[in-house]
Design goal:
about 575 residues; alpha+beta; BirA Bifunctional Protein, domain 2; YbaK protein; Rossmann fold; 3 domains; nine-stranded mixed beta sheet; about 25% helix; binds adenosine-5'-triphosphate; binds magnesium ion
């Protein structure tokens, strides 16, 4: 490919609306162009990268025994009603109507469709197990499309679905996929961590995510991990043990109500009462799918909202507004505001009974402090079963913190940021049961399939690779997913000798299967070098003045090291590196 013909336009500046490195770099280096919010054109360079990732995914999925198919992007409402998700999938599901007023949606994921395919085609135990996958564009009307390809509304995903007869069969396939994923990301030049995670809206019980660890804002997930053992988990799932020694028994001899004026925060209350936060039962008001939920947790700890939502069952959670709290108080005969709320006497709101969930941290507190729904007052020296009852639901709803102890080995946990590039779920019968997707077993009895599903964000993986491989001058693509392996740069196109040597190298490289660009533009050398760095060719072969001594300069973008060598040697290094990719 000649640079003069390559469809690419690099920009002088980073785009002003981009927050993270991969978004900035991919726009500036001419890989993507925004069409509308969260929707991007993949220009030729980008498309080459995406196809490479797709091919690696394909090779490893096929090698793992999965079979590729392609399902439609538009899906009918009826199947989503069968699974029950038409109602519960929120606004991310892009719904539309056809000319006959039939309701449809743009596929955000394909459990319903694949399950309908399976129930039509997999009727006997003799056909199982099976794993089917596709690589396709998905659409999700994300609340906050941002970060370019990392969180788009339209994005490319590989989604695979397995059908087994037993839980053991599913677990074996799950492990098979975990191994395939590890190979895929390694081949893409990415270091990933496989972490335990919450199963979320897709459902099921066991799931893991593959995270690219990054210390930048692009990592939307907090990952807790232990250096002493293999424990690692997304913050929405991480559990930790608390170090001992916290003061959890108050000094009050008797329970009493005391004045605590203007203590709206835990800090203010601690200052006023001269106690540590560990003696306070903090009460937070949440709305889960319209229903009121109170969360009780020790004053020094934070609630993990996904855990709380799972504890009560729901698909959407948010903290209540001041107005809602006021209404809730009035409805139950109180006048308190934030800072003074407590579980006692709160019965209903919004037409629902109020559910109270206590975190395990409050269970062992004695002579504690708690809100009693009276403004500027708190109960102190309170105890469960005496002044106030321990709620029926006591479970872990706490956000882990770095420094707390590993649940497996007891050593301090660490935290880092991660980009989720793939995940694997054990779905069980979550879709097969409601959709009546069954096969006949050895005894001729109908049984629902035991399913698993396995996703990889193809476009997100490309962006994550940029987050992991760049410097201030541009991208440093890993060789396996670079749009081209190498660029040959004649410093002066007017110099016949330079052009002759550059062309020779170009032809040799092409002949040996290298994907190569020659920068034939009549541009200043500085412009060519800048573009080569920005676009991120893994190798650059620079043909300049030293050709009079028979040498070219060979640059490896990963290290930016330059070495003078014979043209044949430079070509040889590239050809060997490509050969070793396989
Ligand atoms: P997230 O928590 O980041 O929203 P998810 O749990 O919704 O991801 P899945 O529904 O399991 O993700 O999708 C499988 C894969 O698709 C993810 O691991 C991720 O790599 C990718 N993916 C999901 N949402 C997006 C998006 N909005 N833009 C780009 N890639 C995405
Ligand atoms: Mg999502």
């Amino acid at each position: 490919m000649k640079m003069s013909k390559l469809f690419v336009q690099t920009l002088r500046e980073f785009p002003s609306d981009a927050e993270v490195i991969s978004h900035k770099m991919l726009v500036r280096a001419g890989y993507i162009r925004k069409l509308t919010s969260g929707v991007y054109n993949y220009l030729p360079l980008m498309w080459r990268v995406l196809k490479k990732i797709e091919n690696i995914v394909r090779e490893e999925m096929d090698a793992a025994g999965a079979q590729e198919l392609l399902m439609p992007f538009v899906q009918p409402k009826e199947l989503w009603e069968e699974s029950g998700r038409w109602e519960v999938y929120g606004k991310e599901l892009m719904r539309l109507r056809d000319r006959h007023n039939r309701e449809m949606c743009l596929g955000p994921t394909h459990e319903e469709i694949i399950t309908s395919i399976a129930r039509d085609g997999l009727k006997s135990y003799k056909q199982l197990p099976v794993n089917l996958y596709q690589i396709q564009s998905k659409f999700r009307d994300e609340v906050r499309p941002r970060f370019g390809l990392l969180r788009g509304r339209e994005f490319i995903m590989k989604d695979a679905y397995s059908f087994d007869m037993t839980q053991e069969g599913l677990e074996k396939e799950y492990e098979n996929m975990a191994q395939a994923y590890t190979k895929i990301f390694k081949r893409c030049g990415l270091n990933t961590k496989m972490v335990q995670s919450d199963s979320g809206a897709i459902g099921g019980s066991v799931s893991h995510e593959f995270m690219v660890i990054t210390d930048t804002d692009a990592g939307e997930n907090d990952v807790f991990y232990c250096d002493s053992c293999d424990y690692s988990a997304n913050s929405n799932h991480a559990i930790s043990k608390l170090p001992e020694g916290a003061k959890i028994i108050g000094d009050w001899k008797n329970a009493q109500i005391v004045d605590t004026p203007e203590t709206h925060s835990i800090e203010e209350l601690c200052d006023f009462l001269k106690i540590p936060a560990t003696l306070i039962v903090k009460t937070l008001v949440y709305i889960v799918d319209k229903k009121p939920v109170l969360a009780l947790i020790r004053g020094d700890k934070q609630v993990e909202e996904t855990k709380l939502m799972n504890a009560v069952g729901g698909s959407d959670i948010r903290i209540a507004t001041a107005g809602e709290i006021e209404e809730m108080m009035a409805l139950n005969g109180f006048e308190a505001e934030k800072g003074f709320i407590g579980p006692k006497g709160l019965k209903e709101y919004n037409g629902y009974e109020i559910t109270v969930v206590a975190d395990e941290t409050v269970k062992d507190l004695k002579n504690f402090v708690i809100g009693i729904n009276q403004k500027d007052k708190h109960g102190v020296g309170y105890n469960w079963g005496k002044e106030v009852n321990l709620p029926q639901i006591v479970t872990d709803i706490r956000l882990a913190e770095a420094g707390e102890l590993c649940p497996q080995c007891g050593k301090p946990l660490k935290v880092t940021r991660g980009i989720e590039v793939g995940n694997i779920f054990q779905l069980g019968t979550k879709y097969s049961k409601p959709m009546n997707a069954v096969y006949l077993d050895q005894n001729g009895k109908a049984q629902p399939y035991i399913m698993g599903c396995y996703g990889i964000g193809i476009s997100r993986t490309a962006a994550a690779a940029v987050e992991a491989h760049y410097d201030e001058h541009g991208i440093k693509w890993p060789l396996a997913i670079a749009p081209y392996h190498v660029i040959v740069i004649p410093v002066s196109t007017k110099d016949e000798e330079q052009m002759r040597v550059a062309n020779d190298i170009y032809i040799t490289l092409k002949k040996h299967g290298a994907e190569v660009v020659i920068d034939d533009r009549d541009e200043r050398a500085g412009v060519k070098f800048k573009d080569a760095d920005l676009i991120g060719f893994p190798y650059q072969i620079i043909v300049g003045k030293s050709i009079s001594e028979g040498n070219v300069e060979f640059k490896t973008r990963e290290t930016d090291e330059k070495t003078a060598m014979k043209p044949e040697e430079a070509a040889e290094i590239v050809i060997t590196a490509i050969h070793n990719l396989k």
